[in-house]
Amino acid sequence: MKKFFLFWMIFLFVTVFSGFFLLAEIRKFEKENSQFFLTQTSIFFPQRQARPIILFFVGDIMLTRGVENMIKKYGQGDYKFPFLKIAEELREADILFGNLEGPISDKGRKVGSIYSFRNDPKVIEGLNFAGFDILSAANNHIFDYGREAMEDTFLRLKEAKIDVLGGGFNEKEACGPLIKEVGKTKIGFLAFTNLGSSFWSATENKSGICWLEKEKMKEKIKEAKEMADLVIVSFHYGEEYFLKPTDFQVSISKMAVDSGANLVIGHHPHVIQEIKEYKEGYITYSLGNFVFDQGFSEKTMKGLLLKVIVENVKIKEIIPIEIKINQFFQPEVVK
Q1: Are residues 124 and 15 in the same domain?
Q2: How far apart are CA 164 and CA 176, in angstroms?
Q3: pLDDT 10s digits, 280-324
Q4: Which residue of 128, 204, 306, 321 lies most exposed, with the fewest beta carbons within 10 A?
């Protein structure tokens, strides 16, 4: 019995001593070859990089008149029809922005010119299908059917979870800023127009659009800059069918960048205008048409899908992607 007990004591001692010795040797090896282990670990477990943020911007969207006729004649009344050729590309975006020409409503009465637009409420099905996150209402067509149709538009888009930019039930809503957060990056959006009539400018107690006034614009950009990492300003300005920006477009866009905007997005001319890098920002004077029925010229049947890549809370790159509008008034990426 004593021999048996002595045997187990010796066995236990040898086992424990061997374990300590082996552990010490392993730690010594790890220390001497630490760089090897770090290298191998980085191969199998690479450090995670933050995914770039993708922003897409498109120009003027009008879904009535000739576009609506195509939806009914060739799209069997499906309001996804205008976006069928481009929806797949648009889904890459974390945020998709466009300019909405005219109210979305079945209310109101025409108060504008012969070129007045009112989009059927069903168009929201198509806008959601395309993936729109933000639509600008700061333009000269949102009030074509009066305040009732304009306010109805704001309510319908809110219900569809699409943010309205540049228009609202009061000045604070209309002039923002609208702050969107993607990952850890906060992006501030603003929209202004000087087209139409200042009568439709939103006030503290009245619905409307954000009217472009220089000092107010500067203040709003400053406010957005304090709340966000990047500031993007949308302008509905310029002259229709002009291939070059007007002096006013150039001066107000540069003023926006001087005030702190990182990117200026322009629309209204219905044709593509130049893109310029200015100081620490970018200016896109006009993205042209996106969905429109202006088939009378080649230039009005083209537009740009502007891809903006954001990394480390900075604009890394902007990529203009040419689109064409086919005979059914559907935008397609030019391959």
Answers
A1: no
A2: 10
A3: 999 999 999 999 999 999 999 999 999 999 999 999 999 999 999
A4: 204
CA distances from 15 to 8, 9, 12, 98, 206 (A): 10, 10, 5, 74, 86
Length of the chain counted residue by residue:
335
* Domain match, 35 and 57 both: no
- Same domain assignment for residues 105 and 36: no
Q: What is the pLDDT of residue 335?
A: 87
CA distance 261 to 1: 90
- CATH for 136: 3.60.21.10
Note whether 33 and 80 are same-domain residues: no
pLDDT band at 15 (very low <50, low <70, confident <90, very high): low
pLDDT in tens, 29-74: 444 444 443 334 334 434 445 789 999 999 999 999 999 999 999 9
User: What is the value of pTM for the model shown?
Assistant: 0.85
- DSSP for 44-71, please give it: HSPPPPPPPEEEEEEEEE--SHHHHHHH
Q: Which residues pair with 189 in a beta bridge?
A: 178, 232
Question: Are 20 and 92 within one domain?
Answer: no
- Same domain for 214 and 233, yes or no, is yes
Which residues form the domain of 40? 2-44
Closest of 177, 264, 254, 288 to residue 222, by C-alpha? 177
How many Cα atoms occupy the beta-carbon half-sphere of 65 within 13 Å? 15
